[in-house]
Amino acid sequence: MPAEDDPLLDIAKDPARAKALRQSLERLAAGAGGSALAEMANDVLTGRSDLRTAVLSGTYAEALNSRVQQFSTWYQGLSEQEKEEQTERARAHLDQLRNEDQPPPPPSRNRTRPADDGDDEPPNSFLRDAW
Fold first, then answer.
1. Residue 3: burial class (beta carbons within 10 Å; 0-12, 13-18, 19+)
2. Percent of the chain having pLDDT more than 70?
3. Is 123 strand, coil or helix?
């Protein structure tokens, strides 16, 4: 799906973040957050609901609050260095996602020329016969 058509872009505001959000929803849909969050993630991924509506509906509030509390407890237990490392890992992951969406660079037209060896003869090639 083109990034412009991704319904998660409305919340994420950036194609790489939308892709990361989609990956998180896919993990939840596979059961990583329990059955209630799997149901929510499946509803969002299949288009039966949008993420904003699902989160604000109250239907999944208990499961979401529980997981947010677990994350908060984990994060507060990290040292400042560990927090910085987690931030860097997140940045690197987003950079990787951004790079995956970029087309490969065109082949370089700047060919390095061999060092001048003082010989004024052209290199051996079909062009040499034309001289």
1. middle
2. 75
3. coil
Q: For residues 65 and 31, is the Cβ–Cβ distance under 8 A?
A: no
Per the confidence metrics, is the pTM higher than 0.85?
no
User: Can you tell me whether residue 59 is helix, strand or coil?
Assistant: coil
- At 33, list the tokens: 């957050």
Distance CA 48, CA 66 (A): 24
H or E segment at 29?
helix 15-29
What are the 10-residue block averages of pLDDT along the chain, 131 residues in total?
73 91 96 94 94 91 93 96 96 92 67 56 48 42
H or E element, residue 9? helix 9-12
Measured from the Cβ of residue 119, the count of other Cβ atoms closer than 10 Å reads: 7
Stated as kind and residue range, the H or E segment containing 74 is helix 61-76
